[in-house]
Write a structure and sequence with these properties.
The complex is a heterodimer of chains A (about 325) and B (about 170). Chain A is built from nine helices and eleven strands. Chain A has about 325 residues and is an alpha+beta fold. In chain B, helix 5 links the parallel strand 3 and strand 4. Chain B: Belongs to the cytidine and deoxycytidylate deaminase family. ADAT2 subfamily.
Chain lengths: ~325, ~170
């Protein structure tokens, strides 16, 4: 099985945008410290704090450009001079050349790739997020993890095939507690029956509720299962017991729709692995509900999990 | 159409019922050809299922009613108006499209989960396989809808970590 592919927020994939900034040449590099100190005080450019203040424009490092401010900040000034930008009372005016415009990155680089791209125009600081680097490396999961993921997704595929035989949408879902690898619930789709909202994921969530003594749909079907020992199993170590799908992982053969993706937000799922993408899917294709700004819960999503087997279900081979 | 306020008052009754049952106070009713066909209110805590929002509960009651009365549910839902005290969340907006409910009348905006305009416009985005777009009318009894939510969350810091909250959000 190939590595499941993480689906991160758009800002980790976006192309670095460039914008106009005024810069100036530092006439003699021995004044660099003074220049930086005063500019940092007078125009901190907080929003762009990832941009280094100074750029070396030759190999020897003795030809330096210093960042002044975004073009938009002085848009109201008719004649853009050093005095107008920095202030007439500044003591560093004598050390600097005439201001001119250059293109600099106006989006903060968050990945190594973006950092390389951004640095072509202007040097940027970059604090590497190891988790993000690992996720984007294409080898995030180790062999043991891959085997576990494969095992659970195979179960979901099996349920999708059962669903297909019952003339239902070929979608299967499994919810697992990753701390002990125990299956909490497993389901397949039933939307073509009397209830159009009984998608595999919605059923799987309700079966988790049943494992906790709740639940709404008393579906009796041997293919729809929930772990009946979960309350007692957890109550010894955790006094409060399980709460919704907190800490659980979902394996589902097809990318969830908006309803199911948001149901997983409400249910506090931990991670979602899916096989095939869907053009209106809400976890990467049409929306990214799992990283949606403004929502009070976010979760990790991985696509292309056992994709060959899943794509067969949807004629996407 | 001039009956909108009347039905919204009924939805508000259900929000109050949710409140009394310590559920997030959102209520709704489904109206078919000028008849109140089903009611719903939040049932998240009692079912331990975070998807038991008022709209989903009411939809299920109509499905059951259709089943018991031998009605074609497609025809019923296509002629239903939903009255709900708060803007449907993303999940419910998607559910309403799947049921092909054409018209939604709601009270206040849902700044935390709204699926009509507040967080994501699921109600009106180009999602043909999900179902037809929803027509939404907003602002009816909005103040009352907000007040009952505020009352419910009173003394509750919505920015507090969830495990420290008195009331679990849904």
């Amino acid at each position: 099985m190939d590595q499941p592919e993480p689906i991160l927020d758009d800002r980790y994939y976006q192309i670095i945008q460039l914008g106009d900034f005024y810069v100036s040449v530092i006439k003699d590099k021995k004044n660099t410290t003074k220049v930086i100190r005063e500019l940092t005080e007078r125009m901190p450019n907080k929003e762009f704090n990832y941009l280094k203040r100074v750029k070396s424009t030759n190999n020897k490092g003795d030809s330096l450009q210093v960042l002044l401010c975004p073009k938009d900040d002085v848009a109201s000034i008719n004649e853009v001079t050093l005095e107008a930008i920095i202030g007439e009372d500044s003591s560093i005016l004598q050390y600097l050349g005439k201001p001119f415009l250059v293109k600099v990155p106006v989006t903060q680089p968050l990945t190594k790739k973006q950092h390389q791209e951004a640095s072509l125009n202007w040097p940027c600081t970059f604090h590497e997020d190891k988790q993000i680097t690992n996720l984007l490396s294409g080898k995030y999961f180790n062999d043991i993890e891959i085997e576990k993921i494969k095992k659970h997704m195979l179960k979901a595929v099996e349920l999708a095939q059962i669903s297909q035989r019952k003339q239902q949408e070929p979608i299967g879902a499994v919810i697992v507690d990753p701390t002990n690898d125990i299956i909490i619930s497993a389901s397949h789709d039933l939307r073509r029956g009397d209830h159009p909202l009984q998608h595999a994921v919605m059923i799987c969530i309700d079966l988790v509720a049943r494992s906790q003594g709740g639940g709404m749909w008393k579906l009796s079907d041997n293919d729809l299962v929930y772990n009946q020992d979960i309350n007692t199993a957890i109550s010894t170590e955790n006094k409060t017991g399980p709460y919704l799908c907190t800490g659980y992982d979902l394996y589902v053969t097809q990318e969830p729709c908006s309803m199911c993706a948001m149901a997983l937000v409400h249910s506090r799922i931990n991670r979602v692995f899916y096989g095939s993408s869907h053009k209106e899917g809400a976890l990467g294709s049409f929306y990214k509900i799992h990283t949606q700004k403004g929502l009070n819960h976010h979760y990790e999503v991985y696509k292309n999990t056992l994709s060959i087997e899943c794509n067969k279900l949807y004629d996407q081979t | 159409m001039e009956d909108h306020p009347k039905w919204m008052h009924r939805a508000m009754d259900l929000a109050r019922e949710a409140f009394k049952n310590k559920e997030v106070p959102v209520g709704c009713i489904l109206v078919y050809k000028d008849q109140e066909l089903a009611q719903g209110r939040n049932e998240v805590n009692e079912t331990k299922n975070a998807t038991r929002h008022a709209e989903i509960v009411a939809i299920e009651k109509v499905l059951k009613w259709c089943d018991e009365n031998n009605k074609n549910s497609d025809e019923i839902f296509e002629n239903i108006t939903l009255y709900v005290t708060v803007e449907p969340c993303i999940m419910c907006a998607a559910a309403l499209r799947q049921m092909k409910i054409p018209l939604v009348v709601y009270g206040c905006a849902n700044d935390r989960f709204g699926g009509c305009k507040s967080i994501l416009p699921v109600a009106s985005d180009e999602l043909p396989t999900l179902g037809p777009k929803l027509v939404c009318i907003s602002g009816l009894l909005a103040e009352e809808a907000v007040n009952i939510l505020k009352e419910f969350y009173k003394g509750e810091n919505l920015n507090a970590p969830e495990d420290k909250r008195k009331i679990k959000p849904n």
